């Protein structure tokens, strides 16, 4: 005798088996699509939205409102089904959608028979259309009283102990003792060359799992239906032995991948990758290019979007109050709204100094994975609050293990310092009025020497010497006569207006405008590297080159080394050389200089303009923004940590 | 890639009208009475349409979504104003 099933949840948790251990059918579907996708999502816990996932979510939203009731199985239904061998499961008969017809009474009836007490009288159009077919069937059956009626239950969750699988059925249609699962899909069905409709393997396997779970719960079930939302077509999926074998081996593979801790390799030039929501996390072609594997791709397809479509916000007006209204951030000064910014448009919130952000705004930001960066009024970075969570704990474990391996640390550190010096040299070559041959030659030499340094200490030494050479020539990249200089050493400084001269790097506090801007640029870049590290799942505070010190984002500082010249220094040069920031934007305060609010505003715009500008990746030959580049480079470091690639390719411009 | 959409609506009921207005404020700039200009990615558009579909009465109200092309290659004369000025902001970030 089969126990009556009262509802999804009682079914799911009534067993001895740890419910955590049951694999959701959806996961198996993803494994059949791509084993690496399964690993990234369900072992590493990474997720990214795409058009397909969002649309899928919208399609499922109404379906998921069901209560999950399904009448108990009839004892006679058990295992009585024998699949017919000659049925080809891949060829499916399309059924025309009949005109919509509202038949509320049908659902009331269904509710009493089938435990579906969810009928609130406001049926979704799609659902109507989907159920229409069966409603028509049952209309016919009403005339012939002896034929069984088709009844519906929505959003039914069932599990199978023997398979170790839990499945959520969007809709279950029961006719007599036969239950047919219906799965809602977005888009349109696959069409074969001869025009017949068919289903892809991941979807077939998902239906097979639902059928198996139904059988395990005592129902008779031998086929399922895919309902395509866009075209309103129903596609039947028969379940035969071949499909069952495929399904069972997929379940086994899922368990094995979960236990192995080894990420499956990317698919080879697959048409699936461009559609895959995780393509920016997986980096299939980039990984294959760098990994030591057979047949690396000839060219890396540009599968990642070149830019982040959302923009950072900087709040810079002292005493400002920022609240949330509907989906907007509302900035107020003295109770008056000065600006409204849509949450949908932003990817960061940054606060400089004395700014109040309401709890509601903070909650919304964190809930949307929008990090909040905190800076002092002068622009010293002092923290980021999350909402980013720990995305990939496995890579973090690997990071901690390898940070203890001094050989590994030295290896990464050498590459970082080498890259940084090379990039400094490139900046001098590109921007200096008369690049000094000796400096360029020396920088080249020290860059090479960094690669063979035998300790972190000697690397620090090399980095220091190179910095002295580079900053020694830095002034030659400033092309602005700031109007107060009379040339030579005899520049005149108006009382409160410092000139743009640069002699050496100084900080805390910076003593001239150029140093003030360099400090601010490094602060901003630290913040962005920290955010990149966190997005990828790394701990921003444990570095390989920079040593652990409380409060120091050592890994962010590691990551940013090669980008200091390319992003930060370059922004300072362009802000000055294009006169976006001028001497008027600074005030002398004792020995140091302070940037005005307006100056900071212009500088922030210059910085973000740089972050948003496109640069060609020398290894992959596609163009991405600097912001995207930071993320890609950080993901490649994570690949190096997981062992998938053998060398960390530090970014160098050509 | 973002595209520019002009979204206009004709809603018969005051409560739904308020809701549509509120919803669209989350997606774009209110240009004129019942007209919004939104710069949306494909994903944004999908979400925005789903939100509106939930609010509207499908038999009485209407929303029109007019595609004005990619935001990146927007021409300076895409929108021209007579009377009060119109300006399209395109900064790499917000500084307030
Ligand atoms: S991008 Fe391609 S290889 Fe990577 S997870 Fe997606 S489908 Fe698999």
TrEMBL record, chain A:
Transmembrane segments: none
Pfam families xrefs: Cas_Cas1, Cas_Cas4
Swiss-Prot/TrEMBL keywords: Antiviral defense, DNA-binding, Endonuclease, Hydrolase, Magnesium, Manganese, Metal-binding, Nuclease
Keyword Zinc set for record: no
A GO BP annotation: maintenance of CRISPR repeat elements
Top enzyme category: hydrolase
Acidic residues composition bias: residue spans: 115-145
Record region (Disordered): 70-147
All residue ranges annotated as the DUF83 domain in the record: 148-283
EC id: 3.1.-.-
Cofactor(s) the record lists: Mg(2+); Mn(2+)
Claim: Magnesium is one of the keywords in the record: yes
Residue sites binding Mn(2+) per the record: 463, 546, 561
MF terms in GO: DNA binding; endonuclease activity; hydrolase activity; metal ion binding
Function (record text): CRISPR (clustered regularly interspaced short palindromic repeat), is an adaptive immune system that provides protection against mobile genetic elements (viruses, transposable elements and conjugative plasmids). CRISPR clusters contain spacers, sequences complementary to antecedent mobile elements, and target invading nucleic acids. CRISPR clusters are transcribed and processed into CRISPR RNA (crRNA). Acts as a dsDNA endonuclease. Involved in the integration of spacer DNA into the CRISPR cassette.
Subunit record text: Homodimer, forms a heterotetramer with a Cas2 homodimer.
Similarity comment text for this entry: Belongs to the CRISPR-associated endonuclease Cas1 family.
Name assigned to this protein: CRISPR-associated endonuclease Cas1
Species per Swiss-Prot/TrEMBL record: Allorhodopirellula heiligendammensis
Gene that this polypeptide is encoded by: cas4-cas1
TrEMBL record, chain B:
Gene Ontology molecular function, alphabetical: hydrolase activity; metal ion binding; RNA endonuclease activity
Binding residue positions for Mg(2+): 10
Enzyme Commission designation: 3.1.-.-
Gene Ontology terms: biological process: defense response to virus; maintenance of CRISPR repeat elements
Pfam family membership, one: CRISPR_Cas2
Reported cofactor(s): Mg(2+)
Coiled-coil ranges from the UniProt annotation: none
Alphabetic keyword roster: Antiviral defense, Endonuclease, Hydrolase, Magnesium, Metal-binding, Nuclease
InterPro entries named among the record's database cross-references: CRISPR_associated_Cas2, Virulence_VapD/CRISPR_Cas2
Family of the protein in this entry: Belongs to the CRISPR-associated endoribonuclease Cas2 protein family.
Function: CRISPR (clustered regularly interspaced short palindromic repeat), is an adaptive immune system that provides protection against mobile genetic elements (viruses, transposable elements and conjugative plasmids). CRISPR clusters contain sequences complementary to antecedent mobile elements and target invading nucleic acids. CRISPR clusters are transcribed and processed into CRISPR RNA (crRNA). Functions as a ssRNA-specific endoribonuclease. Involved in the integration of spacer DNA into the CRISPR cassette.
Binding partners and assembly: Homodimer, forms a heterotetramer with a Cas1 homodimer.
Protein's recorded name: CRISPR-associated endoribonuclease Cas2
């Amino acid at each position: 005798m089969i126990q009556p099933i009262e509802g999804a949840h009682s079914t799911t948790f009534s067993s001895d088996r740890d419910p955590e251990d049951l694999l959701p059918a959806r996961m198996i579907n993803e494994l059949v699509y791509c084993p690496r996708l399964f690993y990234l999502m369900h072992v590493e816990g990474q997720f990214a939205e795409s058009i397909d996932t969002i649309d899928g979510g919208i399609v499922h939203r109404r379906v998921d409102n069901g209560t999950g009731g399904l009448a108990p199985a009839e004892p006679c239904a058990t295992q009585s089904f024998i699949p017919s061998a000659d049925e080809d499961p891949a060829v499916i008969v399309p059924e025309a959608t009949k005109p919509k017809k509202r038949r509320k009474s049908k659902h009331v009836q269904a509710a009493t028979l089938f435990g579906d007490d969810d009928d609130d009288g406001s049926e979704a159009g799609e659902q109507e259309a989907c159920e229409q077919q069966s409603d028509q069937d049952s209309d016919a059956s009403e005339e012939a009283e002896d034929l069984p009626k088709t009844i519906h239950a929505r959003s039914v969750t069932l599990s199978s102990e023997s398979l170790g699988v839990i499945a959520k059925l969007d809709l279950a249609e029961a006719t007599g003792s036969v239950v047919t699962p219906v799965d809602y899909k977005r888009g349109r069905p696959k069409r074969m060359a001869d025009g017949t409709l068919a289903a892809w393997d991941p979807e077939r396997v998902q239906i097979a799992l639902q059928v198996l779970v139904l059988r395990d719960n005592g129902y008779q079930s031998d086929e399922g239906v895919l309902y395509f939302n866009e075209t309103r077509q129903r596609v039947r999926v028969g379940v035969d032995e071949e499909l069952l074998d495929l399904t069972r081996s997929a379940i086994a593979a899922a368990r094995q991948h979960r236990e192995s801790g080894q990420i499956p390799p990317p698919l080879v030039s697959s048409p699936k990758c461009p559609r895959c929501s995780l393509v920016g996390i997986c980096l299939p072609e980039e990984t294959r290019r760098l990994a030591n594997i057979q047949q690396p791709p000839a060219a890396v397809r540009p599968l990642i979007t070149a830019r982040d479509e959302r923009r950072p916000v900087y709040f810079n007006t002292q005493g400002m109050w920022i609240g949330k209204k509907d989906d907007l951030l509302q900035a107020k000064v003295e109770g008056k709204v000065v600006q409204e910014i849509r949450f949908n448009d932003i990817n960061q919130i940054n606060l400089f100094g004395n700014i109040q952000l309401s709890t509601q705004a903070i909650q919304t930001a964190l809930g949307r994975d929008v990090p909040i960066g905190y800076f002092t009024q002068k622009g010293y970075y002092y923290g980021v609050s999350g909402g980013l969570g720990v995305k990939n704990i496995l890579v973090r474990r690997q990071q901690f293990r390898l940070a203890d391996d001094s050989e590994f640390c030295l290896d990464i550190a050498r590459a970082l310092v080498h890259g940084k010096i090379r990039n400094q040299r490139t900046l001098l070559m590109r921007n200096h009025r008369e690049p000094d041959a000796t400096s360029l030659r020396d920088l080249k030499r020290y860059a090479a020497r960094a690669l063979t340094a035998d300790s972190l200490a000697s690397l620090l030494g090399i980095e220091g010497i190179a910095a002295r050479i580079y900053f020694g020539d830095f002034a030659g990249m400033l092309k602005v006569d700031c109007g107060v200089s009379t040339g030579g050493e005899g520049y005149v400084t108006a009382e409160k207006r410092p000139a743009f001269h640069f002699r050496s790097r100084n900080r805390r506090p910076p003593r001239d405008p150029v140093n003030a801007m360099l400090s601010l640029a490094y602060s901003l870049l630290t913040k962005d590297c920290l955010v990149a590290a966190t997005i990828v799942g790394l701990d921003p505070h444990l570095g390989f080159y920079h040593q652990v010190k409380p409060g120091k984002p050592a890994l962010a500082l590691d990551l940013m080394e090669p980008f200091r010249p390319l992003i930060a220094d370059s922004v300072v040069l362009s802000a000055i050389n294009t006169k976006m920031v001028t001497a008027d934007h600074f005030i002398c305060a004792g020995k140091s200089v302070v940037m005005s609010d307006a100056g900071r505003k212009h500088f922030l715009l210059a910085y973000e303009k740089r972050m948003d500008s496109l640069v060609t990746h020398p290894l992959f030959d596609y163009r991405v923004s600097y912001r995207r580049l930071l993320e890609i480079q950080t993901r490649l470091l994570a690949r190096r940590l997981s062992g998938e690639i053998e060398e960390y390719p530090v970014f160098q411009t050509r | 890639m973002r595209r520019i959409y002009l979204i206009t609506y004709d809603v018969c009921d005051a409560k739904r009208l308020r809701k549509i207005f509120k919803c669209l404020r989350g997606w774009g700039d209110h240009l004129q009475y019942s007209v919004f200009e939104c710069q949306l990615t494909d994903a944004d558009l999908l979400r925005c349409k789903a939100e509106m579909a939930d609010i509207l009465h499908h038999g009485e109200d209407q929303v029109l979504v007019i595609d004005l092309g990619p935001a990146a290659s927007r021409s300076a004369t895409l929108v021209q104003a007579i009377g009060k000025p119109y300006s399209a902001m395109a900064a790499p970030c917000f500084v307030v």
